[in-house]
Amino acid sequence: MKKHLRKALSAFLGTAILLSCMSAFAQTPMQIEWSGDYSDNTKPTVTVSFVSPAEYVQEITAVIYDKDIANPATSDYVRIAEVTTSDKEKKDLVFNITNAFSETDGAYTIRLKGNGHKKDECIDSASLYVIKPGAIPGILNDFKNTAIFETTLSKVMDALQLDAEADGARRAKRIEIMINMQANDFGGGFATLEDVRLAWKISDTIAYITDAGSTAEGIKERVENNASLIGADTENADYIAFIDDACADILAYSSEYNQNGGVKSLKDLRGILNQYIGLNAVNAASEETLYGVFEGYKNYFELPTESFNKYNNFSRENKDKALRLINNKNFAKNADLVTAFVNGVAAAETAAPTTTTPPVIVIPPTGGGTSGSSGGGASLSTPPVSAPTTPEAAKTPSFKDVPSNHWAYSSVTTLAQKGIINGYDDDTFKPNNKVTREEFVKMIVGATGLVVADTACDFADVPGNAWFYEYVASAFAAGVVSGIDETTFGVGRNITRQDVAVIAARILDYLKPGAYTAAETTLTDIDSVSDYAVQSVKLLNNMGIINGYDDGSFMPRNELTRAEAAAIISKLAESL
Question: Is the dihedral of CA 332, 336, 338, 340 positive or negative?
């Protein structure tokens, strides 16, 4: 190997350039690309990718040396590597950057040479830039000094391959955003140079919001191009439904955000996205779903602390009263919602508010719980109620819209008698209304006796005084459900049939581990069920707990109705 390497290096010296002129491929570049990875301060790397133009197997020799050296000798090489290529395949060479990489940080040349016959040699070169690990701590510390922030940024732009900002005023705006991001999003200082790369990239999206000539379509494009960096869930139902309107709102009212401070950090960008997606979700909500939608987004609406705290301390009844001034208002901007909310809280406060919270339903437990689900948006307009303890509890509940010949009559009646579900003030059950994640969890936890005392969860959209808090906390503690992400449960989002199957199947497995086995199913659209839910759907369908429609389909992504929820939960309870 050493003999071969020496021979290859010798070919580089003296004759390489001459031979390249004679090469049939001399004018065909090797498509050299490179990128540095600075996510580890002590072990940064640079990856060089290339494609040889040769259509046969080649031994490629790569050398790196200081860019200022015109005719390098072997002693000038700071890195040497060999790799075999064939049939124009793309190859990567990874070089560790060490403090001995060279005497100084900065520009280097990488030269690639492929062996072959006299007229078949391939030679190409490119410039690359590196920062040695020994210099990184000092650079990161310099970023904390805002007076030299721009100078420090200039030192790393080539190595991090950051695009140059030709517009001086916009560059200054992006740097101001990066300084705000360092303070608000990175704990006061960048931990790695990868943080710097991220901040520069996101600063372009944030700056665009206030650029002359920016458009709502442009904001959306930048958000989606950087969705993983921003934390935007582009598959979320609310995002899909309202992102276009939200971006138009952001363009029109971004200066009002952050107490009129505008959008100046990644945290601000995430906040205003949720604020205006939430505002449009509130505008689209029905009277029945408004509470769940508002609860899911209320932390993004910049509500005055006094009114916000009063609202959170209200009973569910008084929360509904406060939200009446928000229902069907079609707010254009967040400030309009805030005004209506403050007035609604004041009106509810003067209407003899009650401060009790809904009682918890505790049914004698028959077992435990299990994990994971995701779903989509809204909520019931009345709080859950406990089963009556008076002699009237024995009476059969009667709902005007669930007559005795309704397909779900038995299930609805059974659960209503137990206090698992309840109707509305007008003696209706509204069987076709959709069910949200928190509503379904409340019902299935109550029916299976999974209420666990003194449990807790810290989802941002599940406040401690919410009527569903104890149910969600109990389900989460038992492993029955998880959030849609690490900090959000997904309050107000309608739950799908396949997610319900997952929760129910996992409850069965928790209560009786190994007792149930999924079987084949005759459901005609089983192939359209998401992979994570296939076995659960087969199990529940085989047990008769979840049935298909008249045409034999399951419709996994259909949102669950109240009647379907009653039927599934009633059958699940009977099977235990």
Answer: negative
pLDDT digits (tens, 9 = 90+) for 301-311: 999 999 988 88
Q: Which residue has the tokens 């030269």?
A: 111
Q: Kindly list the distances between the CA atom of residue 203 and the CA atoms of 159, 218, 257, 322, in Å, as whole numbers in the listed order.
A: 18, 14, 17, 38
Gap between the Cα atoms of 7 and 82, Å rounded: 12
List, in order of start, the domains of the chain with CATH numbers: 2-130 (2.60.40.2550), 135-208 (no CATH), 296-355 (no CATH), 391-575 (no CATH)
> Would you give the distance in Å from CA 254 to the centre of its chain?
22
The span from the CA of 327 to the CA of 9, in Å, is 76
Convert the pLDDT of each residue in 184-212 to its tens digit: 888 899 999 999 999 999 999 999 999 99
From the list 464, 502, 454, the residue with the least C-alpha distance to 482 is 502
Alpha helix positions (H), 209-301:
216-225, 227-230, 237-253, 257-260, 266-284, 290-297
Task: Establish how many alpha carbons lie within 13 A of residue 469's alpha carbon, considering only the half-sphere containing its beta carbon.
Answer: 21
Cα 51–Cα 56–Cα 59 angle in degrees, nearest 5: 70
Question: How crowded is residue 473: how many other Cβ atoms within 10 Å of its Cβ?
Answer: 24
Reference 132, options 99, 96, 95; nearest CA is 99
d(CA 24, CA 123): 11
